[in-house]
Design a protein that fits this description.
- By secondary structure, the chain is an alpha/beta fold.
- 33% of the residues lie in helices and 24% in strands.
- It has helices at 26-38, 57-64, 83-89, 100-107, 114-120, 134-138, 140-151, 177-188, 225-236, 264-274, 317-322, 340-350, 361-364, 388-406, and strands at 15-20, 42-47, 92-98, 126-130, 155-156, 160-163, 169-173, 200-205, 209-213, 216-219, 240-245, 256-260, 280-283, 290-292, 311-313, 329-336, 355-360, 369-370, 372-376, 379-382, 386-387.
- An 8-stranded mixed sheet has the order 12-11-8-13-16-17-19-20, sandwiched between helices. A 5-stranded parallel sheet has the order 2-1-3-4-5, sandwiched between helices. Strands 6-7 form a two-stranded antiparallel sheet.
- Helix 1 (26-38) runs parallel beside helix 2 (57-64) and helix 9 (225-236) packs across helix 14.
- The structure holds cytidine-5'-triphosphate.
Length: 408
């Protein structure tokens, strides 16, 4: 069965504020500006005073084609926009590099220059690409700020690990401009990471809900955000997408064919009826492993005595699909609370699937960002922390590359 392909759900984010804070990595923001402009973004660079000590505003002006701003006090900036106009114009803010000092200031809501004021007053997504010495990154105060900013909805891109300008090695390196661009380009709408035109993708997402009686259920905690982000990324990449979802509070990505389900058994039935001509299957749902053996048709009355509920195992949907005679390329998800690598690897082998995406449940549940590692026959591939939207595009790209190498 095929469904009409319709335009992507996300309007592309074209108008970016690129905030440059003080640090030696500021020079990399020049190349980033060039790449963002080339990818179709309009870029307004805003520098902190400290950043202007490292790179001249003129360099950014030449690369972005717009006067660089750094002072809040000019009544009207060179390009005719004051900071209120600027906040209305922009669709996203990216701070690269984000220094330890800058993170500390915005974590505390300070607004004492143009860039921090815009961050404090924003109602648009904020992406932070940190760059600092590894000891500063690991410093408990900095880690507290990172945690606070994440809770406040900021999305961290990196930092990376490796050789640093100070000669030390460790976490804190600004991601390379090309790495940042590949993370952001699907949002800019220039091009998805992969071309999935002609491919049919089936996904499961969200929790399943198992009835105990008409008013009580057993369920798993799952917002559905990762599965919906993958479905949206697959549509943006041109695929024909069927999303089989348990109940969530999310709106369905435009272009997906949604099949709503409740129980694991309903999800299994929907998957099996949709899977025949699928090229890829992403099993993102948090499927209940057990269901009440005989749900009551009427509300169970309390007696005051302890109650015993007999639970029976649900079908393993992913393992069932992987065991079909001509299975699609199957991708599983493993949310673990401990021993992530060991359990994820074991699950990949037990379910006989080529790829599993592992993450720590306590790091991911309900949040807009995540930190995942991909496990395949070649080993483990950690991805930099990022929004689920960005991770979705990277997971898709990895799956397609693996699928193509397997079929050659
Ligand atoms: N899965 C499934 N059907 C089930 C249980 C899980 O399709 N009945 C899929 C999930 O969608 C996920 C993968 O299997 O892609 C791993 O799910 P998870 O709950 O982490 O693992 P389980 O196999 O249920 O093992 P355990 O609960 O013991 O960790």
């Amino acid at each position: 069965m095929t469904y009409p392909t319709v335009p992507p759900r996300h309007p592309p984010l074209r108008r970016w504020i690129l905030g440059v804070s003080g640090g030696i990595a500021a020079y990399k923001a020049c190349e980033l500006t060039r790449l963002l402009v080339k990818a179709g973004a309009e870029v307004q660079v805003i520098m902190t005073q400290a950043a202007t000590q490292f790179v001249t505003p003129l360099t950014f002006q030449s690369l972005s084609g717009r006067p660089v701003l750094s002072h809040i006090w000019e009544p009207r900036q060179d390009n005719g926009m004051d900071h209120i106009d600027l906040a209305r114009w922009a669709e996203a803010i990216l701070i690269a590099p984000a220094s330890a000092d800058f993170l500390a200031r915005i974590a505390h809501g300070m607004a004492d220059d143009l860039l921090t004021t815009l961050v404090a007053a924003r109602s648009i997504p904020l992406y932070l690409a940190p760059a600092m010495n590894q000891a500063m990154w690991n410093n408990p105060a900095n880690q507290r700020n990172v945690e606070q900013l994440t809770l406040d909805g900021a999305i961290f891109l990196g930092p990376g690990e490796g050789q640093q300008a100070c000669g030390e090695t460790g976490m804190g390196r600004l991601l390379e401009p090309s790495e940042l661009l590949s993370l952001l380009s699907p949002l800019i709408g220039s091009k998805p990471l992969v071309d999935l035109r002609g491919k049919r993708i089936v996904l499961t997402a969200g929790p399943t809900v198992e009835a105990i009686d008409p008013v009580r259920t057993l369920t798993n905690i799952s917002s559905g955000k990762m599965g919906y982000a993958l479905a949206a990324a697959a549509v943006i990449s041109g695929a024909d997408v069927t999303l089989i979802s348990g109940p969530t509070a999310l709106s369905v990505p435009a272009g997906c064919h949604l099949i709503p389900v409740h129980s694991a058994a309903q999800m299994r039935d929907a998957v099996l009826s949709e899977i025949q001509d699928a090229d890829l299957f992403f099993s993102v749902a948090a499927v209940a492993d057990y269901t009440p053996e005989s749900p009551s048709g009427h509300k169970i009355k309390k007696t005051g005595a302890p109650m015993t509920l007999t639970l029976v195992p649900t079908p393993d949907i992913l393992a069932t699909v992987a065991a079909l005679p001509n299975p699609p390329f199957c991708v599983g998800f493993a949310a673990e609370s401990q021993h992530l690598e060991e359990y994820a690897k074991r699950k990949r082998l037990a379910k006989n699937i080529p790829l599993i995406v592992g993450n720590l449940a306590q790091r991911a549940l309900g949040r807009d960002d995540n930190e995942v590692t991909l496990f395949d026959a070649n080993g483990s591939h950690p991805l930099s922390p990022a929004s689920k939207e960005i991770l979705a595009h990277q997971i898709l790209a990895h799956a397609i590359t693996l699928m193509n190498t397997q079929s050659t």
